[in-house]
Structures are given as C-alpha cells and as structure tokens.
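Issue 218. Parser rejects a valid record. Input:
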Amino acid sequence: MSFVTHKQRVVILRGGTGVDRARSMQSGQELIDLLHADGRAEPIDVQVSPSGEWLLHGVVRDPAIVLAQADAAVSTLRGQYGEDGILYRELQRHAVPYFGSDPYTTGIAFDKHLSKDTANKAGLVIARHMRVSKSSLPDLPRVVSSITELMPAPYIVKPTHGASGQDIFVAHGVAELANVLRGILTRHDDVLVERLVEGKVITVGVTAGLRGQDLYTTPAIELIPTESYDPHMGDKIIPARLSSKEKEAVAEAARAAHVAAGLRDISRSDFIVTNDGAVVFLEINAVPSLAPDAPMRAGLSTLGVGMDELWHHMQTRILR
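Output the parser choked on:
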C-alpha cells in the first residue's frame, strides 16, 4: 500500500497597508524563493493590497478560501493590520498555525503606551511620557501645559500606533510642541509625547528557541538616527559602542521585555543607553522586519544566521 503525501503548504503574506509595504514584499519574496529552492514546502504567495484585499495570482480572494488550503502561515506584513493582532486573529480563527505571537500580545506591543506600561511593571526603566488624543485638540494649550509640568523639554512625539519612523518629531520648546501636536493629531487619533532621553539608540532582537537557547539575542546594535527616525535608513554599528556590562544589561532588558509582553517567537526592542549606563526602554516590536536592511536581519547575520536557518527554525516553531 502506498500513501500520497503533499508538501506542506505555507501561506506567505506580504505587502500590506503600511509604510513598510516595499520591505514586506521584498522579505516575503525571499521566503518564497527559499521555499522553492528547499523543495520541502509549497509557498502560497498572498499579496495584501494597500486597501487590505488578499490577492492570490493577482485575483482578489476571500481569506477563508485561501486559508482553507494552508498548513501554516508566515506574515511579513508591518504596520496596521500586520502588527495590531487582527491578521493573527484571522489565522487563529481558521486554525492555521503561524510564526509569531498571539493576537492579544501582538496588539499590546503595537501600542507604544501600553507596551511601556507593561515593561515598567516588569521593572524596566521608561522615560516620562503622556498619551494625547485627537479629542484634546480644542484644549491644546492646557494639554501642552500639563506636559511641560510633567517633564521638561526636549520632547519626542510619535503616533501611539506606528512603525518605521512615520510621523516622528522632536520638539525643543512649548511653541514647537504645540505646533507638532496640532499637525500630527490631524493624521492620528492619539500620539505619545515622551521626554527625549540623551544617549545611544540601541536595538536588540530576540528569537525564542533559536540554536537551542530559550531566548536567543542578537548583539546590541547601535542605530544612528536619521531625520525621520527610520531604523532602516540610518547607519548601524554592530556591535554597539557599549561596555561589556552595558551590552549584557541591554540584552537582559530585551529578554525581560519579550517575556513581560508575553510574546512567543520573535521580537525586537529599542532602548536608550545613557552616558551613565542606564538602560531606558523605548518600545518593543512583535513583528520585526526581516528585510535585508532591517536591524533584526543585520543582527542575526552577524551571528551567521541566514534566512535559510531562520526559515527552518520558523518551521520548527510553527509545528511544535
């Protein structure tokens, strides 16, 4: 008696609605090419349009129909939909295993205010900050006054939900802060105003279970900020210009942030390491970009972890 078995069918979700669409398309294509070359799994290339439609072979398809064919899924989508937990909820609803965290914790990580609170409860140091909503625009002078009472300038202002340096501004005084808020709140429902902490911007990636380690960390990567604060665009210094003690402290903080956020397979956390060695948590990313120019990819590459090894690890995690 003979049995006919099919290759594992893996839906690769790429594209999306965010500013990282091009990088998502690129890293998704790398995975597709890798699966074709490996031959042990059949990739199903699903491109998500900027309007959120699922396209299979260029034709809009119902996600339920696409996922009915799937044994597993990997998403490279970033920003809204890719990082807010909605996509993972869709995969769970159709019982499709995937690489990533559960929808709830993914959504918490995407919310910069909630993720800071989670990190702080776990003992990580955070900068003073305040959440400001669009509804407060009519009372902006009072809001600005409350911010200046809470913390001195300079300030960094960013969307509460956002990725890759989109709409991030520095304000050095009261008038500039008011102008920044007046502009950014016309584009976002709420934003985070945070005390700008001086120091080195450091990012560390965490991959659970890789190479037999519970939480495998990349080296500390120093990001040289650009005007847009896009972590992909500026120079990266690997390893970061930190002392051995600081490197270990920031690696431990990244592991602690991953655990505190309840994340499962992968994350990347950003910090400021001050001149006196304090490690200040900025944010955590539950769906870090794996594009060639991404910090997570650079950190893994430094350790000799290529996309082929990472893919085999993804398979192990998905099917565990």
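Fixed in the parser; the record now loads. Residues 98 and 246 are 34 Å apart (CA to CA).
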